[in-house]
Amino acid sequence: MENVRDPRQHINEEPRDDFMDTAIGFGAMFGFMLVVFAAAVIVKFVIS
Question: Taking the complete model, does pTM exceed 0.70, yes or no?
Fold first, then answer.
């Protein structure tokens, strides 16, 4: 590879679907935050 800055020489070996990656990441983060929120609510009711 002579010119490392030439984008034509960098073949995308694994084509990715950016929208689905973003949607899955958003869904996973939303699910995680929902679990954290539910745990915090449960802890608050147990304490009070």
Answer: no
